[in-house]
Amino acid sequence: MKIKLLLFICCLHAVLVSGQQRPVSITVDVQKQKGPLKPIWAWFGYDEPNYTYMKDGRKLLSELAALSPVPVYVRAHNLMNTGDGTAALKWGSTNMYTEDKDGNPIYSWRIVDSIFDTYINQKMKPLAQIGFMPEALSTNPDPYRHYWQPGRNYKEICTGWAYPPKDYDKWAELIYQWVKHCIERYGKEEVETWYWELWNEADGYYLLVDDKFKVYCKMYDYASAAVKRALPTARMGGPHVTGGAGEFMRKFIVHCLSEKNEATGQTGAPIDFLAFHAKGAPVFTNNRVRMGMNNQLKDVDRHLKVISSFPAMKNIPIIIGESDPEGCAACGMKTDPQNAYRNGTMYSSYTAASIARILELDAAYGTNIIGAVNWSFEFEDQPWFYGFRELATNGVDKPVLNVFRMLGMMRGNQVEVSGDLTYNAKTIMTAGVRGEQTDVNGLAATDKKSVTVMLWNYHDDDIIEGEAAVELSIRNIPFKKGTLHHYRIDQEHSNSYEVWKKMGSPQSPTPEQYKTLEGSGQLQLLSSPEKVRVENGTFKVKVRLPRQAVSLIRITGA
């Protein structure tokens, strides 16, 4: 009997030991630098431009500007739409172009100025979208405005604004007058730092014609000529195609390099940057969300492969105009359950892991990604934590915004990260992050004063069980003493959603509850700042990292 009991205890011990996850060793070598850490994350976008100057919109923009060491670029749809400026889901308008009874143009810059003024006052910059078609210029204007709501067919949003111009000369003159007005209002030097782009996803729903490529190229020829006529040094680009449109991108580059320009009659069209979109593909299965980061990274890989195949495009700036876990920011989790990841820490860990892998792919191809637009902003007067893809809800920051606060602290050159790392961009593209393994990895940077390391524990499945033990070693630190700050996003830190749920999920929080939620949405320390010594250039620390959590380790020299 004693022997049987002893065997049982031994077997139980073996099971417990085997169930424990082996510690993950991560090494950061400060001397192994890869060049400047490009702040590709400092780009944001949204469909509803009229939210820009509203109460919560202004508040969020001020936070985005404050977290970034470089000017933040903002991309918004619907800047040229006809209407009274009333905001709605997937809709916006500025009424910049109408016509009198004789068909003469009437230009109005009041609403679009209020949008751009808000950016400029925050020292942000527009990624100015030439879109969409004013009602008076649309080839098929009726019906013009849509009234789409979540749960309805997404194609319903494509109404009269999604058609090409019936008069290309009038349309080009409108673009010329808009750029000219911006120069007069903000100054030539300021506008030279902006990016001007044409349309959005012309290969998909957003351009309602049969021969989308031919029509888009004609529109681009006229738009780019108008922009350059107003400001020869302006930065103009496109085509902002969907992630799967690699062939469209290839043909567009050929057009800009060697084909006839429909506006000028000359060969080629100006192209100062290239843009495409990259989206993940989450699904709802087994009563939980399963993310699809592999799809997003494949989109990036597909387009970088095309762009890098053209010697003439070497070093051309590349903007991922929408870089997200999926496609519809205004589709909440109640109508689209696969979007339930958006309120909590999974959105945070996904964002950290995907940005690092986009930088990895960019380095592998030797290309020049300068921006990856996070297509999420905020939605005014909507239910709390409805599951929109947004950075804040009713003025309270969601956990994902704190990833960008962490990234804003990472300065200087990117540093090599090595160790017991299971996943990189290639392995994720091949099979995602599935099964027993989790993606425990890091992104590191250093400048003369500090070393920063972002760590994450990501998995495609939306579950929080599976803590990782990380043994972090930072080598060749150039100072002997420093101060350690450890910031954390998890179930207990930097997480307004969990605090809101513990309150009973109020849809009308009291002023005291609102203040608590507002504070819980800020980036929080895991522990108090600590004075540390660096022994022989090395600092080691053990980190318990819950699944879907993100940490930022920052050591500042004394």
Automatic annotation (TrEMBL):
<comment type="similarity">
    <text>Belongs to the glycosyl hydrolase 39 family.</text>
</comment>
<dbReference type="Pfam" id="PF01229">
    <property type="entry name" value="Glyco_hydro_39"/>
</dbReference>
<protein>
    <submittedName>
        <fullName>Beta-xylosidase</fullName>
    </submittedName>
</protein>
<dbReference type="InterPro" id="IPR017853">
    <property type="entry name" value="GH"/>
</dbReference>
<keyword id="KW-0326">Glycosidase</keyword>
<dbReference type="InterPro" id="IPR049166">
    <property type="entry name" value="GH39_cat"/>
</dbReference>
<dbReference type="InterPro" id="IPR051923">
    <property type="entry name" value="Glycosyl_Hydrolase_39"/>
</dbReference>
<keyword id="KW-0378">Hydrolase</keyword>
<dbReference type="InterPro" id="IPR000514">
    <property type="entry name" value="Glyco_hydro_39"/>
</dbReference>
<feature type="domain" description="Glycosyl hydrolases family 39 N-terminal catalytic">
    <location>
        <begin position="25"/>
        <end position="518"/>
    </location>
</feature>
